[in-house]
Design a protein that fits this description.
The protein is α/β, with parallel strands linked by helices. It has helices spanning about 15-25, 55-60, 65-75, 80-90, 120, 125-150, 165-180, 185-190, 200-205, 210-220, 235-250, 265-275, 295-300, 315, 430-440, 460-475; strands at about 30-40, 50, 95-100, 105, 110-115, 155, 180-185, 225-230, 255-260, 285, 310, 325-335, 340, 360-365, 370-380, 390, 400-405, 405-410, 415, 420, 455-460. It has two domains: about 1-140 and about 320-475, Alpha-Beta Barrel (nicotinate phosphoribosyltransferase); about 145-315, TIM Barrel, CATH 3.20.20.70. A hairpin with a 2-residue loop joins strand 19 and strand 20. Helix 3 (about 65-75) packs antiparallel against helix 4.
């Protein structure tokens, strides 16, 4: 299984050189706080979906440097023996908080927070980003595709186009979280309980003397899921008529046809007419062929008679925007038990970080259940629900709004306490259900594919004042 591979050394080399330097300078055990957040929603969408936490937990739980790892680093001739001995005795001891998988997330929010010795908290940067970035990207894309399908099932069909084995398996997992009903990837079913699905390839039809014989042989083998690929030769003149003939002869309990080329709108309409005229109203029509949310939306607008979509390369690679720009930045350190906030300042305003040890709240309207706004606060702050709460835009502080009659919910949950996992990962079905429920709390205006309503992510007044003070202090 992929999870059993020791990924401890899957790290950027600078994390090792910095760790060696921290140790040499006597600051390796200084407590540091790091936040993972992202700056831009893929495809200019209204929100992203958190995913990948379960794999991050597995990585952190298994952090061990093998003898081979240490010997390799020794061979580089740049690491001191004290550091190599530290790695030999390495034991993860950080605290970790994270937003649960399946939760809608927004730019600037701390979706993972790590507190611990800087030598450790810095070291886990790469895998934290790799794991959360990849699965959040695919879950977000999948959710867009599923929403475009307007209640029709979407199958993830991208294994052979994925960027490597882990991209296929974890991409399938993320797509299921985002709302797909299953995957073509068998390994994802075995290891992650994602239902494996599929039909047949054109080669099956070509292996038989006739298309009819190929269809009949397949239907006899799989009468409970007989989905026949009808576009090998001629969809309407050969494929659909042969499928109808076989279905009427064998009467499988579950039947369907798949169209994988041509004008899907036209072909599906004609196929539906032919199936219905033959009394096969319960025969499903599956469509595939380089689909994405925009093509699916257009097909539905044009009246395509499609019951199920198979979506491959444009989903598993998030082809339209294949990077989820999560970053991992230092937010604070501890000195003599006091938290000292840190900030990164940039000429690019969006790259200025939010300092300090923080919490993340989501406010929900009590009457509608809809999300009003997210608020990032300092860790010692609470948002009282018994009185109105003023929200203001941290970029334009004159833009203010009073939140009334709301429920405030903390979004991050504690995952590790002093290196021990204290979080029970939910099942994949529970995560998928969470995604459905949480997306339903967003206003329809945020679900648009173009120009969605921008959701408010505000800073508490105390956090804003801290940030403003630090910017002024370090501005030259």
């Amino acid at each position: 299984m992929i999870e059993k591979i020791n990924l401890t050394m899957l790290t950027d080399f600078y994390e090792l050189t910095m760790a060696n330097g921290y140790l040499k300078h006597g600051i390796g055990e200084r407590i540091a706080y790091f936040d993972m957040f992202f700056r831009k929603i893929p495809d200019n969408g209204g929100f992203a979906i958190m995913a990948g936490l379960e794999q991050l937990i597995a990585y952190l739980d298994g952090l061990r440097f093998s003898r081979e790892d240490i010997e390799f680093l020794r061979s580089k001739n740049i690491f001191c023996e004290e550091f190599l001995q530290y790695l030999h005795e390495f034991k993860f001891s950080c605290d970790v908080w994270a937003v649960p998988e399946g939760t809608p997330i927004f730019p600037g929010e701390p979706i993972v927070t790590v507190r611990g010795p800087v030598i450790q908290a810095q070291f886990i940067e790469t895998m934290t980003l790799l794991t959360i970035n990849h699965q959040s990207l695919i879950a977000t894309k999948a959710n867009r595709v599923v929403r475009a399908a307007q209640g029709r099932a979407v199958m993830e069909f991208g294994t052979r186009r994925a960027h490597g084995a882990s991209g296929a398996v974890y991409g399938a997992r993320a797509a299921y979280i985002g709302g797909c009903v299953g995957t073509a990837c068998t390994l994802a079913d075995r290891d992650h309980d994602i239902p494996a699905m599929g039909t047949m390839a054109h080669s099956w039809i070509q292996m038989f003397p006739t298309e009819y014989e190929a269809f009949r042989a397949y239907t006899e083998l799989y009468p409970h899921n007989a989905v026949l690929l009808v576009d090998t030769y001629n969809t309407l003149k050969s494929g659909v008529p042969n499928a109808i003939k076989v279905f009427r002869e064998l009467r499988p309990s579950s039947m369907g046809i798949r169209i994988d080329s041509g004008d899907i709108t036209y072909l599906s309409k004609k196929a539906r007419e032919m199936l219905d005229e033959a009394g096969l109203q319960d025969c499903r029509i599956v469509a595939s062929n380089s689909l994405d949310e925009y093509l699916i939306r257009d097909l539905i607008v044009q009246g395509a008679c499609v019951d199920v979509f198979g979506v491959g390369e444009r989903l598993i690679t998030s082809r339209s925007e294949p990077v989820f720009g999560g970053v991992y930045k230092l937010a604070a350190v501890e000195e003599n038990g006091e938290i000292i906030s840190k900030i990164k300042i940039s000429d690019n305003i969006e790259k200025i970080t939010n300092p300090g040890f923080k919490k993340l709240f989501r406010l929900f309207d009590k009457d509608s259940g809809k999300a009003i706004a997210d608020v990032i606060t300092l860790a010692d702050e609470e948002i009282p629900e018994d009185r109105d709460y003023e929200l203001f835009d941290p970029g334009f502080v004159w833009k203010r709004k009073m939140a009334t009659n709301f429920i405030a919910r903390k979004l991050q949950e504690r995952i590790f306490k002093r290196g021990k996992c204290v979080y029970k990962s939910p099942s994949i079905e529970e995560i998928r259900h969470r995604c459905i429920e949480e997306v339903s709390t967003l206003w329809d205006e945020m679900l648009r594919f173009e120009n969605p309503h921008e959701y408010y992510v505000d800073l508490s007044r105390n956090l804003w004042e801290l940030k403003d003070r630090l910017i002024k202090e370090f501005r030259f």
